[in-house]
Amino acid sequence: MKKIYVSLLLVVVMVIAAACGSNNSGNNGNDNTSNNNEASETMTIEHELGTSEIEKNPEKVVVFDFGVLDTFKKLGLEDKVVGVAQAGVIPSYIDEFASEDYANIGSLKEPDFEKIAELDPDLILISGRQSEVYDQLQEIAETVFIGVDTENYMDSFTENVTTIGEMFGKESEVEDALAEIDDTIASVNEKAEEADKNALIILANDDKISAYGPSSRFGIIHDVFGVPAVDEGIEVSTHGSNVSFEYVTEQDPDLLYVIDRGAVVGGESSAKQVVENKLMERTKAFQNDDIYYLDPEFWYLSGGGLISVQEMANQIEESLVK
Protein backbone atom coordinates (compact mmCIF):
# COMPACT_ATOMS: atom_id res chain seq x y z
CA MET A 1 0.00 0.00 0.00
CA LYS A 2 2.84 2.35 0.81
CA LYS A 3 4.37 1.80 -2.63
CA ILE A 4 1.02 2.47 -4.32
CA TYR A 5 0.59 5.69 -2.32
CA VAL A 6 4.08 6.95 -3.28
CA SER A 7 3.46 6.14 -6.95
CA LEU A 8 0.15 8.03 -6.95
CA LEU A 9 1.82 11.01 -5.28
CA LEU A 10 4.51 11.10 -7.96
CA VAL A 11 1.88 11.03 -10.72
CA VAL A 12 0.02 13.97 -9.12
CA VAL A 13 3.26 15.99 -8.83
CA MET A 14 4.13 15.31 -12.48
CA VAL A 15 0.65 16.39 -13.64
CA ILE A 16 0.85 19.63 -11.63
CA ALA A 17 4.37 20.36 -12.97
CA ALA A 18 3.25 19.75 -16.52
CA ALA A 19 0.29 22.09 -16.07
CA CYS A 20 2.52 24.82 -14.63
CA GLY A 21 4.96 24.40 -17.50
CA SER A 22 2.13 24.73 -19.99
CA ASN A 23 0.88 27.92 -18.30
CA ASN A 24 4.37 29.42 -18.21
CA SER A 25 4.87 28.58 -21.86
CA GLY A 26 1.56 30.27 -22.64
CA ASN A 27 2.58 33.38 -20.71
CA ASN A 28 5.91 33.54 -22.52
CA GLY A 29 4.11 33.27 -25.81
CA ASN A 30 1.83 36.15 -24.85
CA ASP A 31 4.81 38.27 -23.83
CA ASN A 32 6.54 37.57 -27.12
CA THR A 33 3.37 38.37 -29.03
CA SER A 34 3.09 41.66 -27.14
CA ASN A 35 6.72 42.52 -27.87
CA ASN A 36 6.35 41.58 -31.53
CA ASN A 37 3.22 43.73 -31.84
CA GLU A 38 5.08 46.66 -30.33
CA ALA A 39 8.07 46.16 -32.60
CA SER A 40 5.93 45.93 -35.75
CA GLU A 41 3.65 48.91 -35.12
CA THR A 42 2.51 50.25 -38.48
CA MET A 43 1.23 53.52 -39.87
CA THR A 44 -0.76 54.33 -42.99
CA ILE A 45 0.43 57.17 -45.23
CA GLU A 46 -1.72 58.67 -47.96
CA HIS A 47 0.41 60.42 -50.55
CA GLU A 48 0.20 61.80 -54.08
CA LEU A 49 0.92 58.45 -55.74
CA GLY A 50 -1.05 56.11 -53.49
CA THR A 51 -1.54 54.77 -49.98
CA SER A 52 1.28 53.02 -48.13
CA GLU A 53 1.33 51.02 -44.92
CA ILE A 54 4.77 50.91 -43.36
CA GLU A 55 6.32 49.66 -40.16
CA LYS A 56 7.33 52.45 -37.82
CA ASN A 57 11.03 53.09 -37.20
CA PRO A 58 12.30 51.44 -40.41
CA GLU A 59 15.96 50.49 -40.16
CA LYS A 60 16.98 50.76 -43.83
CA VAL A 61 15.72 53.73 -45.81
CA VAL A 62 16.61 54.78 -49.35
CA VAL A 63 16.19 58.55 -49.79
CA PHE A 64 16.20 60.41 -53.11
CA ASP A 65 15.06 63.89 -52.07
CA PHE A 66 17.75 66.19 -50.63
CA GLY A 67 15.20 68.16 -48.60
CA VAL A 68 14.15 64.91 -46.93
CA LEU A 69 17.82 64.15 -46.26
CA ASP A 70 18.28 67.49 -44.53
CA THR A 71 15.24 66.70 -42.38
CA PHE A 72 16.86 63.37 -41.47
CA LYS A 73 20.03 65.26 -40.54
CA LYS A 74 18.11 67.77 -38.42
CA LEU A 75 16.41 64.92 -36.54
CA GLY A 76 19.60 62.88 -36.07
CA LEU A 77 18.42 60.03 -38.30
CA GLU A 78 21.49 59.71 -40.53
CA ASP A 79 22.02 56.09 -39.41
CA LYS A 80 18.65 55.09 -40.86
CA VAL A 81 19.70 56.02 -44.40
CA VAL A 82 21.36 53.27 -46.48
CA GLY A 83 21.17 54.69 -50.00
CA VAL A 84 21.45 58.16 -51.56
CA ALA A 85 21.45 59.50 -55.14
CA GLN A 86 25.17 60.29 -55.25
CA ALA A 87 25.47 60.39 -59.07
CA GLY A 88 25.08 64.14 -59.08
CA VAL A 89 25.71 67.15 -56.85
CA ILE A 90 24.84 66.73 -53.17
CA PRO A 91 24.48 70.03 -51.26
CA SER A 92 27.55 70.79 -49.18
CA TYR A 93 25.52 71.31 -46.02
CA ILE A 94 24.56 67.62 -46.09
CA ASP A 95 27.79 66.35 -47.67
CA GLU A 96 28.08 63.52 -45.15
CA PHE A 97 25.60 61.69 -47.38
CA ALA A 98 28.18 61.75 -50.20
CA SER A 99 30.48 59.45 -48.21
CA GLU A 100 31.04 55.73 -48.68
CA ASP A 101 28.90 55.12 -45.61
CA TYR A 102 25.93 55.37 -47.96
CA ALA A 103 25.35 53.34 -51.12
CA ASN A 104 25.14 55.18 -54.43
CA ILE A 105 21.67 54.49 -55.84
CA GLY A 106 22.17 56.36 -59.10
CA SER A 107 20.94 59.83 -59.97
CA LEU A 108 17.73 61.68 -59.15
CA LYS A 109 16.34 60.92 -62.61
CA GLU A 110 18.00 57.56 -63.26
CA PRO A 111 17.86 55.29 -60.21
CA ASP A 112 20.08 52.21 -60.02
CA PHE A 113 17.31 49.65 -59.45
CA GLU A 114 19.74 46.75 -59.08
CA LYS A 115 21.70 48.51 -56.33
CA ILE A 116 18.50 49.48 -54.53
CA ALA A 117 17.29 45.88 -54.64
CA GLU A 118 20.65 44.70 -53.21
CA LEU A 119 20.16 47.03 -50.25
CA ASP A 120 16.82 45.34 -49.47
CA PRO A 121 15.43 48.56 -47.93
CA ASP A 122 12.44 48.73 -45.60
CA LEU A 123 11.32 52.00 -47.19
CA ILE A 124 12.03 54.21 -50.22
CA LEU A 125 11.28 57.95 -50.07
CA ILE A 126 10.89 59.84 -53.36
CA SER A 127 9.78 63.22 -54.71
CA GLY A 128 8.82 64.67 -58.09
CA ARG A 129 11.81 63.58 -60.17
CA GLN A 130 11.17 59.89 -59.38
CA SER A 131 7.40 59.91 -59.89
CA GLU A 132 7.63 58.17 -63.27
CA VAL A 133 9.45 55.16 -61.79
CA TYR A 134 7.25 54.85 -58.71
CA ASP A 135 5.82 51.47 -59.79
CA GLN A 136 9.29 50.02 -60.39
CA LEU A 137 10.52 51.19 -56.99
CA GLN A 138 7.34 49.91 -55.35
CA GLU A 139 8.22 46.43 -56.59
CA ILE A 140 11.45 46.60 -54.56
CA ALA A 141 10.08 48.06 -51.30
CA GLU A 142 7.26 50.19 -49.98
CA THR A 143 7.71 53.57 -51.67
CA VAL A 144 6.29 56.85 -50.39
CA PHE A 145 6.07 60.12 -52.33
CA ILE A 146 7.10 62.90 -49.97
CA GLY A 147 7.68 65.88 -52.25
CA VAL A 148 6.49 69.45 -51.67
CA ASP A 149 3.43 70.86 -53.43
CA THR A 150 4.60 74.34 -54.48
CA GLU A 151 1.01 75.57 -54.77
CA ASN A 152 0.42 74.61 -51.15
CA TYR A 153 3.98 74.81 -49.86
CA MET A 154 3.75 75.12 -46.09
CA ASP A 155 0.87 72.68 -45.63
CA SER A 156 2.59 69.99 -47.69
CA PHE A 157 5.99 70.68 -46.11
CA THR A 158 4.49 70.49 -42.62
CA GLU A 159 2.68 67.26 -43.47
CA ASN A 160 5.88 65.71 -44.87
CA VAL A 161 8.12 66.47 -41.89
CA THR A 162 5.36 65.53 -39.45
CA THR A 163 5.06 62.17 -41.21
CA ILE A 164 8.81 61.60 -40.89
CA GLY A 165 8.63 62.54 -37.22
CA GLU A 166 5.85 60.03 -36.65
CA MET A 167 7.78 57.32 -38.51
CA PHE A 168 10.72 57.57 -36.14
CA GLY A 169 9.20 58.81 -32.89
CA LYS A 170 10.58 62.33 -33.38
CA GLU A 171 7.31 64.21 -33.04
CA SER A 172 8.48 66.68 -30.40
CA GLU A 173 11.68 67.51 -32.32
CA VAL A 174 9.64 68.22 -35.46
CA GLU A 175 7.21 70.37 -33.50
CA ASP A 176 10.07 72.47 -32.09
CA ALA A 177 11.70 72.93 -35.52
CA LEU A 178 8.39 73.93 -37.11
CA ALA A 179 7.74 76.44 -34.34
CA GLU A 180 11.12 78.07 -35.04
CA ILE A 181 10.35 78.24 -38.77
CA ASP A 182 6.90 79.71 -38.11
CA ASP A 183 8.44 82.42 -35.94
CA THR A 184 10.89 83.33 -38.70
CA ILE A 185 8.15 83.39 -41.33
CA ALA A 186 6.07 85.73 -39.18
CA SER A 187 9.09 88.03 -38.88
CA VAL A 188 9.71 87.90 -42.64
CA ASN A 189 6.10 88.83 -43.39
CA GLU A 190 6.30 91.75 -41.00
CA LYS A 191 9.48 93.02 -42.65
CA ALA A 192 8.02 92.50 -46.14
CA GLU A 193 5.02 94.64 -45.23
CA GLU A 194 7.26 97.35 -43.78
CA ALA A 195 9.57 97.33 -46.82
CA ASP A 196 6.62 97.65 -49.24
CA LYS A 197 8.74 96.43 -52.19
CA ASN A 198 7.80 94.13 -55.04
CA ALA A 199 10.09 91.43 -56.38
CA LEU A 200 10.97 89.25 -59.33
CA ILE A 201 12.59 85.82 -59.07
CA ILE A 202 14.83 84.60 -61.89
CA LEU A 203 16.82 81.43 -62.42
CA ALA A 204 20.12 82.03 -64.23
CA ASN A 205 21.27 79.12 -66.35
CA ASP A 206 24.53 80.14 -67.99
CA ASP A 207 23.51 82.97 -70.36
CA LYS A 208 19.75 82.31 -70.17
CA ILE A 209 17.24 83.40 -67.55
CA SER A 210 13.73 82.27 -66.63
CA ALA A 211 11.21 83.94 -64.34
CA TYR A 212 9.12 82.44 -61.56
CA GLY A 213 6.04 83.89 -59.89
CA PRO A 214 3.45 82.91 -57.26
CA SER A 215 2.64 79.18 -56.84
CA SER A 216 5.80 78.27 -58.75
CA ARG A 217 8.87 76.30 -57.72
CA PHE A 218 10.25 79.37 -55.91
CA GLY A 219 6.89 80.98 -55.25
CA ILE A 220 7.33 80.54 -51.50
CA ILE A 221 8.90 84.02 -51.60
CA HIS A 222 5.55 85.49 -52.58
CA ASP A 223 3.07 82.95 -51.20
CA VAL A 224 4.61 82.31 -47.78
CA PHE A 225 7.14 85.04 -47.06
CA GLY A 226 4.81 87.79 -48.17
CA VAL A 227 6.98 89.62 -50.72
CA PRO A 228 4.64 90.95 -53.48
CA ALA A 229 5.30 89.82 -57.05
CA VAL A 230 6.04 92.51 -59.62
CA ASP A 231 4.29 90.31 -62.21
CA GLU A 232 1.38 88.19 -61.01
CA GLY A 233 0.85 86.66 -64.44
CA ILE A 234 4.01 84.56 -64.86
CA GLU A 235 3.09 81.12 -66.16
CA VAL A 236 3.64 78.40 -63.57
CA SER A 237 6.14 75.88 -64.93
CA THR A 238 8.81 73.62 -63.48
CA HIS A 239 11.43 75.31 -65.61
CA GLY A 240 9.96 78.79 -65.26
CA SER A 241 8.99 81.17 -68.03
CA ASN A 242 11.80 82.00 -70.46
CA VAL A 243 12.33 85.75 -70.39
CA SER A 244 14.81 88.33 -71.62
CA PHE A 245 16.64 91.08 -69.78
CA GLU A 246 14.36 93.51 -71.64
CA TYR A 247 11.45 91.89 -69.79
CA VAL A 248 13.22 92.42 -66.46
CA THR A 249 13.88 96.08 -67.19
CA GLU A 250 10.24 96.56 -68.28
CA GLN A 251 8.99 95.03 -65.03
CA ASP A 252 11.62 97.03 -63.10
CA PRO A 253 11.24 95.21 -59.76
CA ASP A 254 12.29 96.77 -56.47
CA LEU A 255 13.96 93.51 -55.49
CA LEU A 256 15.54 90.96 -57.83
CA TYR A 257 16.15 87.47 -56.47
CA VAL A 258 18.59 85.39 -58.52
CA ILE A 259 19.18 81.65 -58.24
CA ASP A 260 22.35 80.57 -60.02
CA ARG A 261 21.78 77.10 -61.45
CA GLY A 262 25.22 77.02 -63.04
CA ALA A 263 26.87 77.33 -59.65
CA VAL A 264 25.63 73.89 -58.61
CA VAL A 265 25.49 71.93 -61.86
CA GLY A 266 28.89 72.75 -63.31
CA GLY A 267 27.88 75.72 -65.43
CA GLU A 268 30.65 77.85 -66.90
CA SER A 269 29.40 81.38 -66.28
CA SER A 270 28.65 83.30 -63.14
CA ALA A 271 25.14 84.61 -62.66
CA LYS A 272 26.48 87.91 -61.40
CA GLN A 273 28.41 88.47 -64.63
CA VAL A 274 25.35 87.61 -66.71
CA VAL A 275 22.72 89.46 -64.69
CA GLU A 276 24.51 92.71 -63.92
CA ASN A 277 24.85 93.89 -67.50
CA LYS A 278 24.49 97.35 -69.02
CA LEU A 279 20.78 96.93 -69.64
CA MET A 280 20.12 95.89 -66.04
CA GLU A 281 21.88 98.98 -64.73
CA ARG A 282 18.67 100.87 -65.52
CA THR A 283 16.62 98.93 -62.95
CA LYS A 284 15.77 100.04 -59.44
CA ALA A 285 17.08 96.75 -58.08
CA PHE A 286 20.52 97.40 -59.54
CA GLN A 287 20.63 101.07 -58.63
CA ASN A 288 19.53 100.45 -55.04
CA ASP A 289 21.79 97.43 -54.56
CA ASP A 290 18.75 95.18 -54.21
CA ILE A 291 19.86 92.23 -56.35
CA TYR A 292 20.16 89.17 -54.10
CA TYR A 293 21.86 85.91 -55.06
CA LEU A 294 20.08 83.19 -53.15
CA ASP A 295 22.00 80.07 -52.18
CA PRO A 296 21.20 77.54 -54.93
CA GLU A 297 21.97 74.61 -52.63
CA PHE A 298 18.88 75.42 -50.58
CA TRP A 299 16.74 76.84 -53.38
CA TYR A 300 17.63 74.66 -56.38
CA LEU A 301 19.12 71.40 -55.12
CA SER A 302 17.02 70.85 -52.00
CA GLY A 303 14.26 72.85 -50.32
CA GLY A 304 11.34 71.36 -48.44
CA GLY A 305 13.45 70.18 -45.47
CA LEU A 306 13.65 71.40 -41.89
CA ILE A 307 17.11 72.88 -42.49
CA SER A 308 16.56 74.27 -46.00
CA VAL A 309 13.20 75.95 -45.32
CA GLN A 310 14.64 77.66 -42.24
CA GLU A 311 17.62 78.88 -44.27
CA MET A 312 15.39 80.04 -47.12
CA ALA A 313 13.34 82.11 -44.70
CA ASN A 314 16.52 83.52 -43.15
CA GLN A 315 17.86 84.63 -46.53
CA ILE A 316 14.67 86.46 -47.52
CA GLU A 317 14.52 88.12 -44.12
CA GLU A 318 18.10 89.38 -44.55
CA SER A 319 17.21 90.84 -47.95
CA LEU A 320 14.47 92.94 -46.40
CA VAL A 321 16.69 94.51 -43.77
CA LYS A 322 18.92 97.37 -44.96
UniProtKB/TrEMBL annotation:
Give the Pfam families listed for this entry: Peripla_BP_2 (PF01497)
Q: Does the keyword Transport apply?
A: yes
Which compartments is it annotated to reside in? Cell membrane
Single GO BP term: iron coordination entity transport
Iron keyword on record: no
User: Where does the Fe/B12 periplasmic-binding domain lie?
Assistant: 60-322
Q: Which InterPro entries match?
A: ABC_transptr_periplasmic_BD, Bact_iron-sidero_bind, FatB
Q: Where is the signal peptide?
A: 1-19
The organism's superkingdom is given as Bacteria
A GO term from the CC aspect: outer membrane-bounded periplasmic space
Q: How does it sit in the membrane?
A: Lipid-anchor
Keywords noted in UniProt: Signal, Transport
Q: Give the matching CDD domains.
A: FatB
Can you tell me which family this protein belongs to? Belongs to the bacterial solute-binding protein 8 family.
Q: What's the protein here called?
A: Siderophore ABC transporter substrate-binding protein
Q: What is the lineage of its organism?
A: Bacteria, Bacillati, Bacillota, Bacilli, Bacillales
